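In keeping with the milestone schedule agreed at the kick-off meeting, the structural modelling team has produced records for the first pair of proteins. Each record is given below as a sequence line and a structure-token line. The laboratory manager (R.T.) confirmed that both were archived under the project's standard naming scheme.
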Amino acid sequence: MVKHQPLQVYEKQVFVSFVTGIYGCRWKRYQRSQDDSSRWECTWFIILCSSFLLLLFWAYFWVVAQNDFNEFNWLVYNRSGEWRDETIPILASTTVGFSYISFLLILAIFHISLGQQLNLYWVHKIGVLATLLSTISGLVSVDDIWRDEWDIMLVSLQSTAPFLHIGALAMVTALSWLVAGYVIRSQRSILKVFKTPLTFSCPCIIDRHNLKPRPDVIGRRGAPMLAPENTLVSFNRALQHGVSSLEADITISLDGVPFLMRDRTLRRTTDVSKVFPARQFDDASFFSWTEIRSLNAGQWFLESDPYWTVKTLTAKDQSRIGNQTVCSLVEMLRLAARANSSALLNICRPPPEHPRYRSWFMDTLWAVQKAGISQKRVTWTPDSDRGRVRGLQQTTNEKLSMKEIRQRGITSLTLHYSKASHKDIQEYLANNVSVTVYPVNEPWLYSILWCSGVPSVSSDAPQVLRKVPYPIWLMSQNAYNFIWITSDLVSLAIVIGIFGFQKWRMSGIQNYNPEQIMLSAVARRSSRDINIMKEKLILSELNNGLSSTEELSLYPENSYARHSHGGLSN
């Protein structure tokens, strides 16, 4: 007599094979397991989550730091001596690493939801470690050369906090389907958390009638994204894009002529390495005006294309830029006077061994008078020699208390955006102290400062800010409260509904007999949709003395038929 075990039928699990195959190289059914993951694999899951959070922070930092990419490249240049766009490889590697880690994390979450054992493939473990170590080294490097830039994270939250709150709610709601399946299947409890609004002060949460006038835009070194910085063509471009004032960096030449130069040397923005190769590392102030005037100050812009804008220039514009020379302070002020504009001067005092060390003030004042511009339209830093300044406006880059401002008689501040909080700006304006914030190159930062009431900003990208006629977003406090309360309630209702549905579905599955599920699957599906993984026959010795293998060889077709019909009739 032949005894048969009921036919075991398995449906194809393409999605499970895809998830376990890519994550742990477990493509076959027999390679997978629904046992609890080992502590070692749980540790790797924690490392994966930590890598994702660190990369999320790193990616967000570079997104908001786009406002200061020019500053970053300039800092790197001062260290390396070579001018190149260092942000390109950073952004490319960040994008690849974040995409890779995010994909692995999604696969791990699916493992947990489907009840599969975590088993990260060794190649992925190497990749996760390499990505984590690269990100940590990047963080250390940025902290070394660009530590002040971390402040932009808090500044950006003034604009993005409401949207991050809604995004976090959407993510939690989406994950609840996967988490619910795991929690109910493992019969574990989960802590329910009701999200509250992020506690950040957002200046743009105000009533429309309280919005201050649009801040004036100052062309910082002209329009350096469209033409070489601190050149006449750059200032002309800035005026064409509606700036109210021009800002320039002033250096005093060996013979006392104030000229426009940001760097300590002439290497980056001129061809001094070709004209005076032996002096290319000398301080720019130790060149005479005749020597400085002989240098080309535009060809470097066409060759390096620091902002990827050269291709947008016409042949005429490129020819004009290629023939630019170093601009003097008198030329810049005359241009501002003709355009009925004002000027903000950042003066770099000569070193002590310079022959004009004691007369730099008079040299600058002489240039202002020679240019014929009204002294009331000229503001300069540093805030020194106030007793000698008559008619000229002076500002300071220091963040001072109101007591210090009154003692020093200051009426204007020029502050970095990281030092100008919404509260400080309101205090300064209430005491009739004008505030200019720099550098402001992105619409989101411009919108924040607009809502804060800042009267003017200094920008490297006036062509970008010109396209911002209104803050990016603006809403009243009541509207904001309604949005976050409604989103919280809707998210909570959806999560509760998902958990209820998953519990009902799991309880329905558990009420079925496994044999009934198998038989119903056989009855519903055609034979070509079923993959027969195993058929085991248990044979017993008959009285006629035939072995089990002999009986099978003699009656293979009848045996299979009896088994199939018998299995379906049970």
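The second protein of the pair:
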Amino acid sequence: MAFQRRRNHYYHRFRFLIPFISAISAGLLLFFALLSFLAPSPNDSDHHRLIPPFNAASDVAIGVSHFRVPRNGARSGRDLWTSRNAKFYSGCCNASNKFQKANAITHPNRYLLIATSGGLNQQRTGITDAVVAARILNATLVVPKLDQKSFWRDSSNFSEIFDVDWFISFLSKDVKIIHQLPKRGGKTWNTHSMRVPRKCSERCYQNRVLPVLLKRHAIQLSKFDYRLANKLETDLQKLRCRVNYHALKFTDSIQKMGEKLVNRMRARSNHYIALHLRFEPDMLAFSGCYYGGGEKERRELGAIRRRWKTLHQVSNPDKERRHGKCPLTPEEVGLMLRALGYGQDVHIYVASGEVYGGEETLAPLKALFPNFHSKETIASKAELDKFSSYSSRMAALDFIVCDESDVFVTNNNGNMARILAGRRRYFGHKPTIRPNAKKLYRLFLNRTNMTWGAFSSRVRTYQRGFMGEPNEVRPGRGEFHENPSPCICEVAKPHVKSDSGPRKYGKSDITPRRDEPATVDDQNSDYEPEWPDSEEEEDQVDFQDKGPLNATNLEYDAINSEEPELEEMLSD
């Protein structure tokens, strides 16, 4: 009986608590439901965000506390400012004895005109290949016409960018070049315009172009970019090198201003890094990549993509990142450099256009490298006034500063990166860092789950073969302008073989005019591009240079003639 009374007593006390417990449970359920509603979707999660919190005053903390970037970067155990074995190789581009002089092979009444396409560096490849095309056709080359109608809207002509007299005289033994087409019977020539397929070989020029040239006597090849095969006979490849690395000199005004910028960087530090940063809104839109900006990013970049009918909406942006086809963010570039051993005190020169997200996007890079410079910060507005209205002249200034840097870094696979890679390789193999984006992708994604030591060790492992060392890439692999292997000669046997082993091409036959840089080529693409074999096939392709459109291949432009601006904005 007593037991029954105690049980009833506890029952009545517990009964009064039930409503209170129910109210608390309901409140908790409501709280978690609200929290779930307000939380970002998995696609917008923090591991994709461009801008995590930084503390520049001390070691940089990113994500969880155990991932801290030390001031001095990681210990690399190597010289950060030189390439191993570089002294054993030099540029060599002299013609062989069997390469006849221009006056012996040039036919009268054969004139070749070229209309280049794209930005400064894309046009540079076109000019280089135009000289070789004229040599194949035994024709006189008229000084190439620069692209003045594209996205860049630059009205400069050849002589306002390059030293035209030097160009003509330096190549006089190889190809006859004239300033303009001569009169014919007192009248102007009626030139025939045509376009050749991409990657057109010697035989292609002889079969497609020569018959028209023999009939018309003067022809203009339009949209002349990457219209010459990657593989040619050695003497023609060396002619390419003579054009690109010796004949094409900037005008005195551009060269002097560029050297002034270089001297100002040198006055700040004995060494400096130059970064070519492509992170413009258009670049990101066409890449099809996603950088964690949520609905705002999707809306803004999607609007840019819809301007061009040839671009499809992106269904799987993460796939592009996994395949290494997306430009690294400014933050990721900074983390890569610090992991490779470059400390917070290193001075960095950034060559870039409009950066998507502006200062907010650049903040992590500036926290990692506070000594952050650009031509606008080290030159006065008055000094840049005569260049600032011309995109190609401004690009030329960046080209000079990047070319003369101790280390050149890029976050993309564009024309400037490729051209400088080949140039720096030819002139002494100065370190040129190309991100191994395919391997780095997951490392950046999971970095907050590891220590800085583990992260930096993995970066150094993944970047082997992407640092600008001699023989990182097999001869003949990749685009010729980024890997001019026929023009790189072994002058002595290295004591330590590189991973791929050196290849000997013969005795060096030219001494570089100055100690200029050399670089690696892009190894993120594991295959050669497939080019259309005919103009008909080419017209059916919108973006055919290196497979599906993505940020890595944007430098090669779109070729759809109905949308001329698209290819230009992506090029340099």
